Structure formats: C-alpha cells, structure tokens
Amino acid sequence: MESIATYNVSKIYNDQKDYAVSKIHASVPGSKSITNRSLLLSTLANGETILKGVLFSDDSRHFLSCIQALGFETTVDEENRRITVKGFGGAVPKNKASLYVGSAGTAARFLTAYLGLAEGIYHMDASPQMRKRPMAPLLSSLKELGCEITCEELEGYFPFTLKGHGFGKQQITINIDHSSQFLSALMISATLAGEDFTIYTEGSHGMAYIEMTAAMMKQFGVTVLRKSDNEFFVPAGQAYQPLDYQIEPDVSAACYFYAMAPLLNLPVLVSNVHFQSLQGDVEFLRILEKMGCTTNETPEGICVYPPVSGTYEGITVDMSACSDQAITLAAIAPFAKGPTTITGIGHIRFQESDRILAIETELSRMGIRVTSTEDSLTIYPGTPTPCKVHTYDDHRMAMGFSLIGLRTEGIIIDDPMCCRKTFEDYFRVLDEVISTVKK
C-alpha cells in the first residue's frame, strides 16, 4: 500500500479496453463471523478445539486477547492460520478480569452475554467507535436474568462492569432491531442455564446471522429449536464438544471481488466460496444475478459471469439478509442502466458508521444523485467525479468504495488501514488482482 493515510485507486484504474486475462481469480481470508463464533464456542466446549483457516484481523485479535485474559489456554500460529483453544465446558478460568474489545461487535456482544451469565466480576471497555454502538437491549436482558451492571458513562453503552450470578430465570425477551448479535449472544450462552431456556424476540432483523449461529452451535453439539418466528428454545442437557474445525473463506470479503464481474465485464472466481456456505452474504450473488449476471458453482469455487450485453440493470432489492453488502451494491449502482433501490437496511445506521448516511454523503460528493429514507437508499445512474472518499473508520466503506475507482479516475480512499478490522491485506490483494487484469 502506498501509505497508511490514503490509497489512490487511480493507479489501478481500468478503462475496460485492454485485459491480460479472461477471468479474475481471487482468494480471501477466513470468515470474521465464523472465526469469532468459533473462538467463543471453543471456550464453551470441554477440551481442546483446533481452529483452521482462522482470520487474523483487528476484530479477531481483540476477541482472542479477551479469551486469553479470561485465562483460557491458547496456541496461536498466524502463519498457518491456526488457533488451539482449551475449553472448560462453560466455566471461566478467571472470575475477575478487565477486557478491551476494541471495535469488534461480536466480541462486545458475545462476551458480554457469556460473562454476564457467568459468576464473576468483569470490567468491559471498547474503542470510541464501539462506545457509540448500542448495547442497551442486551444489558437490559442480562439485568433481568440477575446480572448487576454498572455503566460508567452513558447508560446502555461501554464501558461497564458486569457482576454475574448465573441465570435467574429460564426465559427472556430481547429486541433485535439494532443488531441480531444480541440474539446470537444469548443463544450461544443459553446452555449454561442448566435448564430449558427460551428466548423471545421483539423487532425485526435479517435472520442470516442467526441461522449461522444456530448452524455452528449444532456443529459443536448444541441444537436450538425455532418454535415460531420470534421464539428460540434451547433444550437442557446439551453440551458443546471440542472439534477439529475448518473455517470458511469470508464471503463478505469475496463479494468485493464478485462485484467486479459486472463492473469490469469479466468473470470472477473466488477460491473455495460455495452456495452451501453458512454465511448469509452469499445471497449477494443472487442479487448480481438479478442485475444480469450468471453464476456457476465449480469444485474450485463459485464463478460469477457478467451480463452478456456488457451492461447491468438497476434493481430494487431487500438486503436485510446480507446488509453488509449494501455498501458494495451502492458502489456499483451508479454504473447500472437504471436506478437501484436498497431496502431493509435501517439497522446499518447503528454499525461502524451510520452507513446509510455515509453512502449518501460520499456518492453525493461524487456528483451521484442519491435519496434515502430511514431504512432505504435509491442510487441513480451517473458518472462519478474525482473524490477523496471519507471512510468514517468503517472498513466496509473503504473496501466497497474502492470499487468505484476501478471505473472512475481520481478516487482516493482516506484511511485505508481501517480495513485491518476484518481484511488487513485488502488493498494489497486488490493491487495483485487488478495487476493480473491489466496488460
């Protein structure tokens, strides 16, 4: 990368006239969501779990450092992307600890639920960014279950101290309007209740990450029964089992490369990404199909082919199941033949940045017409003008908006190193991929 301050996409700008290859082939690191879930599930299992294909990024390193601070024994091999964790069947080795979760939402929510339902005293703090993100629904549920919580600054936000006393009741209601992680966090820790436990939900949210959580719990030996749209039941008598566990490639990261298929009018294959993935972002490939692309699953991975016409359609799509890709779709939308409307994304206002506002602001600065509502965006076709893109310390803004620079000269990404949160080598990989495309 040319500097840690900015990244000039113009140096790899492609005018679509001359290509050195007939297909883009990319590889991406392991899934952030699966890595962090598997780290927690490993601590809950009774015995040694070996994790393979681990993502090493800011988020996963914070999660790892937290479980180490809690006294769990780990062996870390970054070069071979492996971590070994010795779990104690739900017991936490240290009953007092201070943890720093950085900006990792999964660490923030999952560890808070786990420790709030354990027996001990735990101080929790986070980055300035994570201190602004909502925690109140989860903290309210934990209080109702018997946890004593002292928020040191704003009520319902980091930093706070948890004084857990186990489960005071066998059912709880959680609002998931702002994050499905609140529900995932309670589901994973529900086996510690020792009795049947029921979680009811209020509000709405895409269920893709909940389905991932339930599938991974089942892989580790615990079944969650969804009795209705808003009722999740974890039967007593189950226990997590240690595994030799292979982590999937990160489909969220893969989607930035798949978006190049319509954008650059070239087929794109990402190694080892398949439709049976646990990750909901694989749905983004179906969105590309609606825009005119076609897909083919091969043993090596899914290949996305651009529209035969060489141009792609604007669409209206509910992205509640793959909202992390709203930025990706917004980045390629200006080059579509018609307007693109993205719905079902109100909760992304409460993520690393207010992503609806960030998308609207940065596209508008490029001269692209954008309209928004509380939970939707409409992007109209146009030719982006040169612009320094503000990333708002949001990794997905940096990665997603880099795509615009592959079709428009003069696009500079501010603070590209915010990608360390999930994909620290993104811009190096982007350089390598595009260098194979250009003669």
The proportion of residues forming helix, as a percent range, comes to 25-40%
Number of helices: 14
Question: Order of strands in the sheet with the most strands?
Answer: 2-15-17-16
Strand runs, count: 23
Overall shape: globular
CA(first)-CA(last) distance:
20 Å
The radius of gyration computed from the alpha-carbon positions, rounded to a whole number of angstroms, is 22 Å
Tally of discrete structural domains: 2
What is the CATH T-level topology of the largest domain? UDP-n-acetylglucosamine1-carboxyvinyl-transferase, Chain
How much of the sequence lies in strands comes to: 15-25%
Instruction: Name the CATH class of the largest domain.
Output: Alpha Beta
Largest sheet: 4 strands, mixed
Name the CATH superfamily assignment of the largest domain.
Answer: Enolpyruvate transferase domain
User: What is the CATH architecture descriptor of the largest domain?
Assistant: Alpha-beta prism
Class inferred from helices and paired strands: alpha/beta
- Low-confidence regions: none
- Could you report the average pLDDT, rounded to the nearest whole number? 94
